[in-house]
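lol ok so funny story. i was supposed to be doing the assay writeup but got distracted and ended up predicting the structure for this chain instead. priorities right. anyway since i did it might as well share w the group, maybe its usefull for someone
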Amino acid sequence: MTRLAVLFGWLGITLLLAGCGQGDRAQVRAVIEKLDNEQEQAFQTNSARLMEDSSTAQNLAAMVQNNDALTAAGASAIHLAKLEWGPVNVSNDTATAITWETWDTDFKDGSITSIRQENDYRLVKIGGVWMVDADNHPANQATPSPAAGAPASAPAPRATPAGAQRPKGT
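and the output, tada:
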């Protein structure tokens, strides 16, 4: 009976530890989804403060720069049309996640551009809260699906940290 109790005890601890990782992975996914929604709202209202609770200062600065570039390119609205998930990995207070995001950008001239791009996120846990610290685009390529007459030079509505290169035409 003692061996059975020890076996069930170890099984319980293993399941508990596995569950903890699932909780962090779910939180990482949730903060990325929240940040995507906040970026849409921040662009519409020209208020970067909306993204402060999901981003580190470094990532927030990159997102503000990206939204400013979209505005300068003539964008009038952005919308996350599709979010596809790849792996989410958590190690202590850091995490990585891969997504493929399709963003639609409306322009003042009435045209719309749709771009699908891989996003490699780096997150950090600060004070028990997950924050996006960086969003890189490793393939350095976007897959555009422009509507007729869409400007080819519009940036994709996703942040790129300082020093990282964005694909040309996005």
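The chain has one domain: 2-144. The first strand starts at residue 75 and ends at 91.
back to the writeup now i swear
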